[in-house]
Amino acid sequence: MNKKKLIVPLILLLAAALYFVFFYKDKTLKFVPKNADAVVLIDVKKLTRQYISSLIAHPSKWSGSKKKNKSDISLKDSGIRIPDFLQIFHLKGTRLSEWYSIIELKDPQKFTTYLKSRQFISKGKNIFHKDQIFIKIEGENCLVGTSQSAFDTISQLLFQSSETNVFSADQFIDHSLGSLSFISEQKIQNFSIELKKDEIEIKNTEEQQTFPSLSSKLQQNNHFLQAELDAANIQNYTKIFSKSLADSSQISYFKATADLEQVNDTIISYGYDDNFNEIEKKTYQKIIQPGYLLDIQSTAPEKTWAYFQQKRWINDQNQFTAIPFQPNHIEKNNEGLRIKSTRKSIVQSSNLKENYIFIRNSPLLISSLSTLTSTEKRILSDIEYIYYGNKAQNYWVKIKAKKGALPLILRW
Fold this sequence. Notes:
A hairpin with a 2-residue loop joins strand 17 (383-391) and strand 18. The radius of gyration is 26 Å and the shape is globular. The longest helix is centred in the first third of the chain and has 20 residues, at 3-22. The chain folds into 2 domains: 26-61 and 70-187, no CATH class; 200-411, no CATH class. Helix content is 26%, strand content 35%. The chain is an alpha+beta fold. The chain has 11 helices and 18 strands. The protein has helices at 3-22, 44-57, 108-117, 151-160, 210-219, 231-241, 245-249, 301-310, 363-368, 374-381, 408-411; strands spanning 36-43, 85-91, 100-104, 121-124, 127-130, 133-138, 141-145, 178-184, 187-195, 199-203, 225-230, 251-272, 278-298, 328-332, 336-341, 355-360, 383-391, 394-401. The chain has an 18-stranded antiparallel beta sheet, with helices on both faces.
């Protein structure tokens, strides 16, 4: 056979293979329970394409920067099936910090070996734990979560119930790398997730002017935290912790400015000398302490003050005890309440009459988070700031990383 006649069929065969490997996706979401109220989807194949294209553009990463142990097991050889869409969900009635996912297994025994090689500790009943991650192997599936408290509920909903799931990827994601979706009865509110060179964007709008310009304006200040929220945003945030807080306190506006500083904390203890006389001992330690100024406007300041007193958030010294960082002072005025730290005075930033939260990264913040792993600290230290903005029905969140030689997908 003429070799030239083989070229076209081979090209077509290669194109078909590339399509099925990198583009074809099963959009049925088998692992999102019906009582999920929030879902994060990651388009794994699009993420893979983005990773490969970034890797091709950065030859310095081709050989790898770390020497790998020959006994190490890679994730692709761990016995799992790589999904087309990684499905991460939150269940109604569970804590905000509880998120779960289901991964299919090709070889449960090989996956168990992989977990042990990664220092996961067996807790019995096929449950493994490391840091903030819990994993339960159940047949040819594994449940992954930031807690194990809902494992039995999820297992019953997905593996033991006769009801089939009705979710499709098209209900949540539209050509973006990922999506964050909130489910309320039959309504689904979607936010796209995009991974760029030095930032991650989560948004439901293509607004190109208001949010970026406000973010740039906030960067000009050196405060650790700046925030302004109207009544609607306060309602959204407070219902996460207390559904009645915004309504009962009648708060209509919130503004905050905060800075971090390292201070000397005095620890007083008592001992005895050789003659059994009691003596006072003073030791000092350096701690990270925020200085802050919070302005709370209310439609009825007297009722807001009474509500805080009812909650026992105001003590006899007029300190606001709901904030653990003491000392502070709370006072009532004609518009509402003001809470300020007394260790160091803070000048309130100017009113921008927008809805935003801006958190600037600080080495002091990272040093105070002792429970984080070295990997988590490395990722956190790479972040420059986090920005949230809202205008009407449009929302925008930006996680901005420091500029580096490599894009985030190759750094993290």
